[in-house]
Structures are given as structure tokens and as C-alpha cells.
Structure of ABC transporter domain-containing protein:
Amino acid sequence: DDDEEALKWAALEKLPTIARVRRGLYAEDEGNIREIDLKDLGPVERRKIIERLVKTAEEDNEKFLFKLKDRLQRVGLDFPTIEVRFECLNVEAKAYVGGRALPTVYNFFVNIVEGFLGFIRVLPSRKKPFPILHNASGIIKPGRMTLLLGPPSSGKTTLLLALAGKLDPDLKVSGKVTYNGHEMNEFVPQRTSAYISQHDLHIPEMTVRETLAFSARCQGVGPRYEMLAELSRREKAANIKPDPDLDMFMKAASIEGNEASVTTDYIIKILGLDICADTLVGDQMIRGISGGQRKRVTTGEMIVGPSRALFMDEISTGLDSSTTFQIVNSLKETIHILQATALISLLQPAPETYDLFDDIILLSDGQVVYQGPRENVLEFFEHMGFKCPQRKGVADFLQEVTSKKDQEQYWSKKEEPYEYVSVTEFAEAFLAFHIGHMIADELAVPFNKQKSHPGALAMEKYGISKKELLKACTAREYLLMQRNRFVYIFKFVQVIVMSSIAMSLFLRVKMHRNTVRDGQVYMGSLFYALVLALFNGFAELSLNILKLPSFYKQRDLLFYPAWAYSLPRVVLKFPISIVEMAIFVCLTYYPIGYDPSVIRFFRQYLLLLLVNQMAGGLFRMIASMGRTMIVAYTFGSCALLSVLVLGGFILSRVNIKKWWKWGYWISPLMYGQNAIAVNEFLGSKWSH
């Protein structure tokens, strides 16, 4: 067997590099070894490879990561590393205060007027400035776990967003944030780093595995392929034969564009999601995974990508202490062994979870109170006169010691009277502390850009090509349409029922062409068809609003551009519109007794199809602008009424007041109504 494997490996080594990195030797359960194209790696093979490498996440993950590291170091390769620095970082927001901050109708319109007058510099802004971060400086080093602590409203989320390059453009920002000495405008920070939000925003109709697989597909493989190609060349030159399972894992993880990735199965394994991998994520209306599992999906959605810098915001919310420890321990192994960078914000971590971190950043009132090794944090506060009790968790002590309400109980200099030490005094004292001096000295020396790995920083805006992005979004949209097929089946039934009503109401035997009154009856039947086509697009409103939160999150994370998301929704739903309008026209055209010409039959069908597409586009636009169900339905109902009333049938053009004539000319229903009326009334049966 060993000879057979050696012969197959020798044959594989003779292939050119571009072919060699896409093929591997797969050992089956029976002991047979076969060469396999990793582009066609199936789900069973992927899971067996992961099972062999990481049978138990708690025990085998560290061994697997060391194997990964040793393979690269054996031929002189290193993983890309990122050092994040922030210097004199200030973030300020402006907002209304008092009664002006309340969401009233009066304030809404007054704020719009004031904003416009302020934009043209006629009226000064009434908004008050609120500092969020003040003069924050520090270094987040690769290969070290950094814990971000602070009481509520201390600016933790803002700091994470600033470092990840995701701050709101309306905020006033000063200072400098650099990755390996490069400023934020020199690369794409949203793809270089991964920001993991504390809000769990997912599509409920997708399973855990599908959610992570889509994320991995959109984020691409980063520098993995180039590293693997160089690794393969060096191993061939040194005549080194790697572990077959490890080799297959690395090669499969470097192939982009696959609908399912071996990296997805690995992340599912280490996050403990294998028990619910094929369960729907769910929401309030769809039964799915638990809140803790959903939080782990949020984490996995970002770490499944190639990003080397992780900024995690409250990833322990909804998790028990044991699960939090397991996840943080897995992250620690990855950070330490693969030399990644991580800044993790946790709310009241357990002592055993706290001990997993190497560095601490303590924020309070937007100022850095301490930043440095975990071992020295208590030394600093003892130097300031505050001591952590023996049976008190250090993390809880750090979050309470800067609070005016809780500070006095930790005062240790009993011979001296206690006086409240403000956050500013703590921050100034830290600058004079030896750890503060050390960090200031490091910040004073610029990072040597020559030492930055070429694959550390992302220069492309998106992880894969536009064609692959469109294919990924199309595949996901088709999957969601299958999951929501009840909606489309119901719409088909609805069209059939409404067609039956139209046939019985405007029956051919009762429809004559002798008087103007008869023409009005026919016009009424045509208007009925137009209204049906218009209302049929109303379902797009709710279907779009439910997906908007996840769309905005993934768009801002540069998973895909807006057009790649929108285009498949329009294209894939076009055949459904074709079928719906075909059902209606085929069931009603000849029973009602319209002009028997086949050409006019197809013209009417085309016109109703275009009106239906217009309605779908109109309600999709309203959903995108409204963003919430209440606002969108309010504006949607208003738009629907306006289009109907000003379309020229309910009120004829001559009866519309002069100041509303513009509404008549911009109503799309008017053009559809005129076209469908001309198509019918210029027919041969009306010529006499």
C-alpha cells in the first residue's frame, strides 16, 4: 500500500504546479487510495478529511494547527501578519438634545428644514457635540489575544468599528489608524479585517451550513492560493511529501468559487455547530437554532474568510461560560499558532476565559485607562491605590474600578482618605506608568513597511470576480425561492381564482359592442386586469424588507455589490411573472370576448407582463427606501392609491385638476391603460 501511494504521489509531482495544487490523494475507508480533483470534492469526502484531522475540537484543533504551521515553516514560509496601530484617535458625534431629540412629527420636519439651511450655510446647526473616543492610542500585535473591556457606553463598539474601517461617515474622526504602517486609504480595510457585530443578522430560511458556505464563497480565499503554489514548488524542490489529509485540506481551502468549502466544515466543527449544521437559522416566525448557536453562526460567518485581523464585538452574548471558553480557546489557538491579530470585546467574562488573553485594553468614558499585558494590569491599579479582592473576578474589578459608584470599595490605602479618581486621572497616570512608556516608545518608531507580507493587506474591493459574485448571489436567490415556494404557489392559485371571478363577471354572452356603455364595460374589464397585475407585485414589499438587514450587513462587509444582489432577484422572478400573467390572459381573454386576433392576444399579454414588472420594481424600490415594514407599507399604500386614482380610469384626464396633471403623466398605470385600451378598441370587432 505504501508503495502504491508513493507511486501515485510521484505521478502527482510530475504535474505542473497549476494542476498539482488542484489534485490530491484521497484515502478511502477500505484503504484504497485514489487521485481526486479537489474542485469536485463531495460533502462526504470533505467531512471525512475534517474528521481525520480534527476528530475532537477541544483536543485535536491545536495539533492540526501546529501541523499547518510546521508544514509552512519546514520550507521557510510564514503566515501573513498584521500589526494594527491607532494614535490620538478621536471620534465625535453630533445629535439633538432634550425635546428636539424625540421622534415627533414636528421634529421630523423641523430637522429636515434645519438640515437643509445648515447645508447651504444659512443657519448654524443646533446639534450638540458628543465625544465618543478621546485621544485613544495603542497597538494590537499579531500572535497575541487582546481583550477589550469597559463599562457600557465607554466606546468599545466605536473603537472596534474605527479599527475595522467601518465608522459612520457622519461622525467626526481625527487621528490615525494603520495596518503594518499603511494608512486606511492605501488598502481595503473591510476585507483585510473581519468585524463581528453583536447583532445576529441572518437570512432565516437558510441553514447554518448554507449561511457559512455563502460567506466563504463571497469572501474568497485571499492569499491562500499563491501561498499554496509556492509551498508546492518548494516541497517539490526539497523532495518533501506532506501528510495526504493535510495536503488535501490546504488545497481544497485554496480553491475559490466552490458552493461548499472544506473551510466551512472546519469552522462548523471548531464552533460546535455540527449538531445543527443542517438546521434552518430561523427567526421569530420560523423555528430554527437557539440564540447561542445563532451567535456562533455570526462569529463563524466572518472567521470562515481569509481575514487575518479579527475585531469581535460582544461575541459571548447569549452563550454560557463553558461555550464561551471553548470558542475563545479555539480562537486563542488560531491566533497564537497562525500569528493572526484579534481584539475581542466581552461582557463580564468568566475568570478562566479572562486568563486566555495576553493583553488588555480597558476603556472608560472614551479614554484608554490601560493597555498592555494582562499580568501588569493589577500592578497598575495597585499603584493607583486600588486592589482587587481575592474572591473577585479581575474582569469585573476592572469594569467597576473606574465607576464613581463602585470605586470606593476597592480603595486599599486605608491610612489615606479616599478621593474619587476620575477617568482622566487614570489615563494620565497610565501614560506615566512603565507599560505606558513602553507603548509610547513603540508608537514613536514607525512600522517598517518592508517587513509587511505581500498577502497581508487586501487590495481588491471584493474577494472574487464579478462573474463569481453574480453566480453566488443567483444560487442563493434560487435557493430562497425554493424555500419560499409556498408564497409563489399561493400566488398562482390567487391568479386562477381572480381569473375565474373575471370570467364569470365579464362573461362573453353578456358583453356587447353596440353602445358607448358597452365600451365602458369592456374598459372596466381591462382595468380589472391592470389592477390585478399591479397588486400582484405588492408581495415584493414584505419579501424584500425581511432580507434588508442581512443585505446591508453583507454589502457593508464587501461580500458583494448591490447590483449583484438585486439583479438575480429581478431575473429569477421574471419567469414567475410570465407564468402568472399567462395563466390570467389564457383563462380570461377569449371567455370575456376580447378581439379574437392572435396578435392582439399576445399584445395584451405583453402589456400586462410589463405592468406586473413595473409593480414589482416599484414595490422593491419602496421597500429599499422605507427599510421597515411600517414605513414601507405606509408609503406603498400611498403610492398604490396615487397610481390608481391618477391613472385615468377612476378620474379621467379632463376631471383631474390642473395642479395634479403632473401625477397623471407620471403614473405608469396611465400608459399601461392607454396601451391596452388602444390594443382592444382598434380591433376589427369594434370597427363597425
